[in-house]
């Protein structure tokens, strides 16, 4: 039973890594740098994320940054 679950989990991880491998290596490192430097994620946290999980966090962060930019623009304009 455990061996089946382990193989299934391994397959799921590999599937998502391949399915979400559209991010370039340069982009991957740039995003990692920004997340560690500006948002205080650790590299361990980032490495332990599933690729889809990472994309969710990055897209949420992008949405927040866009909202902040709009608020700043509205307060200055």
How would you briefly describe this protein structure?
This protein has 77 residues and is mainly alpha-helical. Helix content is 82%, strand content 0%.
Low-confidence stretches: none
| Derived structural class | mainly alpha
Give the overall shape.
Answer: elongated
- The fraction of residues assigned to DSSP E strands is under 5%
Mean pLDDT, to the nearest integer, reads 83
Q: What portion of residues is helical?
A: over 70%
Overall domain count: 1
**Which series of helices and strands comes N to C?**
HHHH
- The count of β-strands is 0
Q: How many helical elements?
A: 4
Task: Report the biggest beta sheet as strand number plus sense, adding barrel if it closes.
Answer: none
First-to-last CA distance = 62 Å
Helices and strands, with pairings:
Blueprint: H1 2-19, H2 25-37, H3 43-48, H4 51-76
Question: Could you explain the architecture of this structure?
Answer:
This protein is mostly helical. It has one domain. The protein is built from four helices and no strands. The longest helix is centred in the C-terminal third of the chain and has 26 residues. The protein is elongated and about 60 Å long. The mean pLDDT is 83.
Quickly list its features:
82% helix; 4 helices; 77 residues; elongated; mainly alpha; single chain
């Amino acid at each position: 039973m455990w061996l089946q679950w382990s193989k299934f989990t391994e397959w799921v991880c590999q599937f998502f890594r391949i399915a979400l491998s559209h991010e370039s290596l340069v982009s991957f490192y740039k995003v990692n740098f920004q997340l560690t430097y500006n948002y205080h994620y650790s590299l361990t946290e980032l490495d332990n994320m599933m690729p889809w999980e990472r994309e969710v966090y990055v897209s949420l962060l992008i949405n927040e940054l866009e909202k902040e930019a709009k608020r700043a623009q509205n307060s200055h304009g």
